[in-house]
Amino acid sequence: MSTVTIDPNTRRVPPLGGFNLTVLGLELKRMLRNRRTVIFTLVLPAALLLTFGGQDGWDDPAGSGNVAAYILISMAMYGAALTSAATGSAVAMERALGWSRQLRLTPLNPVVYIVMKTLVALVMGGIAILVVNLVGAFVGKADMPVDVWVASAVVALLCTLTFAALGVFVGYVVPGENAMQILGPGLALLSFLGGLFIPLDQYADWVREIAYWTPMYGVAEVARSPLTHELPWYAVINAVGWFALFVAGAAWRMSKDTARV
């Protein structure tokens, strides 16, 4: 009986590093089956919007809309950030279950794997933004021009990339379910400190000086800029800087993880 020797150098590499819609669809379905993720995506952001809303000054003008619209954008940003971070941090459970090790035996490129994670995070963040906007429009009495509504939603969605990268970074650093136990309270604290829940002009001067350096400050200002028509240059630097830092951290930890035998 003759044996067939396969030369590993002749092995065909799949196109696009193994990227395919089937794997992407499975990742998305897996996230939607997670009850905790659904609560973060559909329930929590809308509940926070209604909790913060309905108070005196709800209809006061703010930029090209009203205060309700200002709060709506902030809550949409928080919900999308929380959801995308949870999606990114799922790599922690996958590493704990050995799924990441199994993927390293396949032709799937690690970078492509993270890209698919990012796309899933964008979809989940988009769902959170959509739910908050619908609640704000029909229940929360938000009022702003349609173009501002669309622009703020798109910008908020792009800003979620920062927290998707943060989730992946934390997922590679923190083991198992501890990732979201850190990210959940951490993002809530950053949201308070970064002016997402409470305007910074209501804080003491020393608190504001700290807030300007936090990851949530920059993205909050960027997401609300279509409504407020105000975007300080240092807020843009903050948003870009933290995004680059989290991406670099996630890439570094991913390279360490995939280098293991």
UniProtKB/TrEMBL annotation:
Location in the cell: Membrane
Protein name in the entry: ABC transporter permease
UniProtKB keywords: Antibiotic resistance, Membrane, Transmembrane, Transmembrane helix
Cleaved signal peptide residues: none
InterPro entries: ABC2_TM, ABC_2_transport, Nod_factor_ABC_transporter
Domain named ABC-2 type transporter transmembrane: residues: 26-224
Transmembrane segments: 37-55, 67-91, 111-136, 148-170, 182-200, 231-252
Membrane topology: Multi-pass membrane protein
Principal localisation: membrane
